[in-house]
Structures are given as structure tokens and as C-alpha cells.
TrEMBL record:
It comes from Siccirubricoccus soli. GO terms for molecular function: methyltransferase activity. Keywords: Methyltransferase, Transferase. One of its GO terms (biological process) is methylation. Pfam families: Methyltransf_14. InterPro entries: Methyltransf_Zn-bd_dom_put_sf, MeTrfase_14. Transmembrane segments: none annotated. Residues 237-391 form the C-methyltransferase domain. This is Methyltransferase C-terminal domain-containing protein.
Length: 400
């Protein structure tokens, strides 16, 4: 219905304007505690596991969770309405990234370094290869504090995605300040939310996360807990924040911080307009993808997907698409032939199947570019139309 919004808002119908009762039971913001009045975007039931499953197990009960996005008007934190049943996967760390960090912070082996347990899989082996002997703080704020009482306070605290573990309270942020030595540095990772919103990449939102902060939102919440950001490193789809105690005056800000703040403000993150644009674009993209595949089915044209990774699982689940509309997904490097995607139950096929199936349309489901998709398909992709669902649906002409 045109003009529809969340409960408690104006509805434009054929009989004039009507108002639905206020929607109850939205939680308070897990970052600042402010009551949240309205939902932002409902992405439906999302499987908690994105690993392909054997065909024989596809009918078994699926562990899934409703992923409804909320936006706090007070601190700007993007968060799910649910409390995560599991932790999201740690952010990968490269040796180049660690070497850059060590060089910038002038770290040397022998200095006390602590890694929070949730970030350990990514950091521990690499730190040891660089000559460090890191301590491992156990999971949970209370356990980490008790452990730290018997350890030297770290001058470097590797916290990973602390915002993704906010759970029901911001206690994890307070723990960072308590663990960190005076003059020390904490390293936190947050998603590149600006790129995610502008690219309408709702398929990158892992329901195992507790929050997706912008830089502006992260700085606000850290400041409330006596911490401040003085440096920023950019990685693939993420930002790495260098954080110190608020009273530490010996760490001047890098110029990259001011540039990033300005970019987020210009994009409408501070005002909230960026989130509203993202939600509306996501709704349109989901409908457009569904309608395109339904039209292809009506017209007798064969559409296949390309790329069966986590993004495909989330995109298909959010769009309500199953094997009746998308008969199969071509998966590079497929190791076995009897797998389906969880949730949608769309079968996976090796890339070689494209030549035999001769699809009329290939939908790129994993965020790769048109050039990358053509390269992956090889000769079989030369006479095929490509569809790129995000940020808005585009059907590209035939490549000759």
C-alpha cells in the first residue's frame, strides 16, 4: 500500500488517512539506553548458519532469527531488534595490517599485549609470529576484569568488534577502559557503515552482530565511557579504530578522522537521512528482484544465480526467493554436487553447468562486479544477460 509505514504512523489508503495503534515492545538502544520508537527495516527470517547443507538435510528444522533493524535517534546506532544467539565471525587480520599497526604505534616485543577472547582467532597466531607473547582475556566483562587483576595492564588491547558484542548493555565498552593501561592503546573494529548504507548492502548484515556503528556513533559511545578515537585505518569493508583514554593528551588525531567525519555528515549519517534512504532502497531492491524472477518464470526464461556465499543466503532470504523462482546458483569451486543454500533451499551447481543449462539471465548474488562475473562465467557468460540486484536492480545488455 502506498504511503505505508510502521505502526503508530500515518497510513494513506483509498478511504483517506488512518493511523494504526502504536507498535509495542521495541527495545531500548543497547548503546545508550534510549527508547526506540520505530523499526527501520525488516529483513525477515535469516538463517543463523550460512553454510550450504546436503539436499537430504534441507527439510530438517532450520535455526533462523527475524532480522529487524532499528536505528537509535539519540546515538545513531544501527542494531537488530533481537539479541544475538551467537557471535559473528571475527574480522580477518592480515600480516600487512599488523605490521602497519606495529610501525605506527612503535610497538616492540616485550610490551604487555592483551587480546580479548572474541578477537583471538584473528590476532593471536600473528602476534606470536611478530615476537609478542599476548595475554588472552576470557570472554565476558566480569571474567575479563577478574583475569586482569593478576596481569600487567596492557599498553595494547586488541578488542576486535567490541560493538558487535554490546548485548543487553554497553558494559563491554566500560571494560575496555578498565583493562587498558594509562597511556595505552585499544584497537577496535567496526564495519564501514557508510559504504554499506550507500551500497544498500543489507546482504552483509550478519544476524550474529549486536550493532553496526558509524564512526560518529562509535566516537559518541566511546566518549561516554572515557575513551576517544585518535586514529583510523581502513580495510576491506571495515574500519579499524585506534582508541585511548580520554584524558590522554599525548596522541594527536590523524587527518583521516576529520575527513571521515565530514564524509559521514555529508552523507546524512548524523541527521539520520542516510538510514531512511537505505531502508527505502533496500525495500525497492528486494521487490524488484522478486518481480524480475517472477516475470522470467512466467515468460519461460531460465534465470540462475552466481555466487552462493553468505551474501546470497541473506539476500535470497530477505527477498523471499526459493527454487521455484531461482532454480539454482552457480558456485565457483563447488566441492560436492548435492548442496543447497540454507533457508531458500536453492541448489548449488558448479560453474561448468552454465554451458549446459544455457541460462537467459544470471543474477549476481555475492556482490562481485559485472566484469568479475563475466570472468567467472567464462565463455558461457558471453550470451547471457547479467542482473546486479544492489544497490538497485540493473539488467545489463548482452556481452558479445
Amino acid at each position: 500500500m502506498a504511503g505505508s509505514t510502521w505502526f503508530g504512523m500515518r497510513i494513506e489508503g483509498r478511504d483517506g488517512e488512518r493511523t494504526l495503534p502504536q507498535r509495542p515492545c521495541l527495545p531500548a538502544c543497547r548503546g545508550c539506553g534510549t527508547p526506540i520508537r520505530d523499526g527501520l527495516l525488516d529483513l525477515g527470517l535469516q538463517p543463523l548458519s550460512v553454510e550450504p547443507v546436503p539436499v537430504g538435510a534441507a527439510a530438517a528444522p532450520l535455526v533462523a532469527i527475524g532480522l529487524e533493524l532499528l536505528h537509535c535517534e539519540a546515538c545513531g546506532l544501527l542494531q537488530p531488534a533481537h539479541r544475538a544467539a551467537r557471535s559473528a565471525a571475527p574480522v580477518p587480520v592480515t600480516e600487512r595490517c599488523l605490521a602497519t599497526l606495529i610501525g605506527r604505534l612503535r610497538l616492540r616485543p616485550g610490551l604487555p599485549v592483551t587480546v580479548l577472547a572474541e578477537a583471538a582467532p584473528a590476532w593471536l597466531p600473528m602476534l606470536r609470529r611478530f615476537g609478542f607473547d599476548p595475554g588472552l582475556a576470557p570472554p565476558g566483562a566480569a571474567a575479563a576484569r577478574a583475569w586482569q587483576e593478576e596481569q600487567p595492564p596492557p599498553v595494547l588491547l586488541l578488542a576486535g568488534d567490541a560493538f558487535g558484542r554490546l548485548a543487553d548493555s554497553p558494559e563491554s565498552l566500560e571494560t575496555l577502559r578498565e583493562l587498558l593501561a594509562p597511556g595505552g592503546i585499544a584497537v577496535l573494529e567496526i564495519p564501514d557503515l557508510l559504504a554499506l548504507l550507500e551500497g544498500v548492502r543489507f546482504d552483509l548484515l550478519d544476524p550474529g552482530q549486536e550493532a553496526w556503528p558509524s564512526l560518529l556513533g562509535a566516537e559518541l559511545l566511546l566518549y561516554r565511557h572515557g575513551l576517544t578515537v585518535f586514529g583510523l585505518q581502513r580495510g576491506a569493508g571495515m574500519l579499524r579504530l585506534l582508541v585511548c583514554h580520554r584524558e590522554d593528551r599525548g596522541k594527536p588525531e590523524g587527518p583521516e578522522l576529520a575527513a571521515r567525519r565530514a564524509a559521514e555528515r555529508e552523507a546524512g549519517i548524523e541527521s539520520g537521512l542516510a538510514y531512511l534512504r537505505f531502508a527505502e532502497a533496500a525495500r525497492e531492491a528486494r521487490v524488484a528482484l522478486f518481480e524480475m524472477l517472477a516475470a522470467a518464470r512466467r515468460d519461460g526464461r531460465l534465470a540462475l544465480g552466481l555466487g552462493g556465499g553468505p551474501q546470497a543466503v541473506r539476500l535470497l532470504a530477505a527477498s523471499g526467493i526459493g527454487p521455484d523462482l531461482l532454480p539454482a546458483v552457480l558456485q565457483p569451486g563447488l566441492s560436492r554436487p548435492d548442496l543447497v543454500l540454507p533457508g531458500s533451499r536453492v541448489p548449488l551447481l558448479p560453474l561448468e553447468a552454465a554451458a549446459e543449462a544455457e541460462p537467459d539471465l544470471v543474477v549476481v548474488l555475492d556482490g562481485r562486479s559485472a566484469a568479475e562475473a563475466r570472468q567467472a562465467l567464462g565463455p558461457a557468460g558471453q550470451g547471457v544477460r547479467l542482473a546486479l540486484p544492489l544497490p538497485q536492480l540493473r539488467v545489463l545488455p548482452l556481452a558479445r
